[in-house]
Amino acid sequence: MANIKEDYLIDITSTYAIEDNKETLNIKTTGTFKEKENKKYIIYKEYSDTNPNKFKTCILKIEDSDKKITLIKNSGIQTKLILEKGKRIYSPYPTEFGAIMMGIFTNFMEFNHVKNEVHLNLKYSIDVNSEFVSTNNIKIRAIKKEN
Q1: What is the mean pLDDT of residues 14-38?
Q2: How many structural domains comprise the chain?
Q3: Which residues pair with residue 144 across a beta bridge?
Q4: Does residue 123 contact residue 110 with C-beta atoms inside 8 Å?
Q5: List of E strands, the chain
């Protein structure tokens, strides 16, 4: 999947808060948006800050009438986060030291696709081994490039 069609400009703002500490990350990249078999996909590369030749392939799969989103990142170790509005999903999260059990509760999910523009807004909390870790907000905007 290294050869991704890069016909969309993708802007991602990710904010997470741990107690009183809040941090925001911004990623600007290119990728694609496609629809297949009642599912929608945003696919892009997330590059390393330290090595511009190293990247993760990221796939956001939107399904179930836009109420379920799966985020898959591939880079040696595959990670998969499943977000369903109003539900807590538990899944193992692999790290270089072994897997940890992570819970994700999604309290807000909004997806819009109008002509050549896609918007996705997610708000969720994370717990590890049933201990609260953070609240998170991800906003993604993908705009089709002009020919």
Answers
A1: 93
A2: 1
A3: 8
A4: no
A5: 8-18, 21-36, 39-47, 55-63, 68-75, 77-84, 88-95, 98-114, 117-128, 131-144
120 contacts 60 by C-beta, under 8 angstroms: yes
Read off the tokens for 30: 């290119």
Look up tokens 């992570």; give the residue: 102
Length of the chain: 147
CA 7 to chain CA mean position, Å: 19
Its pTM surpasses 0.85: yes
Domain hosting residue 66, numbered range: 8-144
pLDDT digits (tens, 9 = 90+) for 54-76: 888 999 999 987 789 999 988 77
Across the chain, mean pLDDT equals 90
Take residue 84 and report the two structure tokens written for it: 């369903």
Cα separation, 90 vs 107, whole angstroms: 15
- % of the chain beyond a pLDDT of 70: 97
For 62, counting Cβ atoms within 10 Å of its Cβ (0-12 exposed, 13-18 middle, 19+ buried), the class is buried
Alpha carbons within 13 A on the beta-carbon side of 99:
11
CATH of the domain at 107: 2.40.128.20
As a whole number of angstroms, the distance between CA 77 and CA 55 comes to: 12
